[in-house]
Specification:
The chain has five helices and six strands, in the order ββααββββααα. By secondary structure, it is α+β, with helices and mostly antiparallel strands. A hairpin with a 5-residue loop joins strand 1 (2-10) and strand 2 (16-21). The longest helix is centred in the last third of the chain and has 17 residues, at 104-120.
Length: 143
């Protein structure tokens, strides 16, 4: 079970609210770690130490393998969002996509493709309300 204090919610005595995430919540720390290229996961004893430390709520150093190079970063479990928080050596939050080794060039090309779709009208990513409006306009034109 994971327990987290909510520092934005305090009762009249100044006690912070407690959020609890049970096993039924569906956060699997080991599976979440497996999604990242972390060197310590290759050795079973290092992996166990890393998992035990994260289960205690610690900010733990980990070696990420990016483009064949080892990069030291810090991670912490985030059971609320069923993910990991990743920080650089200055302990500033790092984008998850960067920690997985996806380069900015991939992100830029994805953004360019999306902008081209919206310019040409190919985008199917409209909000449900916008889709209804478009359908209604089409119906009113056809009548």
């Amino acid at each position: 079970m994971w327990v987290q204090l909510d520092f934005k919610d305090a009762d009249d005595k100044g006690n912070f609210a407690v959020k609890q995430y049970h096993e039924n919540y569906g956060y699997d720390l080991e599976a979440t770690l497996a999604k990242h290229p972390i060197k310590e996961l290759e050795n079973s004893s290092h992996k166990d130490d890393l998992i035990n430390s994260l289960k205690k709520g610690n900010l733990q150093s980990a070696t990420f393998i990016k483009d064949g190079q080892e990069v030291k970063q810090y991670i912490e479990a985030n059971p609320q969002f069923k993910s990991l928080n990743v920080y650089d050596d200055a302990q500033k939050r790092v984008d998850i996509n960067q920690s997985k080794g996806q380069g900015e060039s991939q992100q830029e090309s994805k953004t360019q493709k999306e902008s081209q779709k919206t310019k040409t009208g190919e985008g199917d990513d409209d909000a449900p309300g916008e889709q209804k409006e478009k359908k209604q306009r089409r119906k009113s034109r056809s009548i």
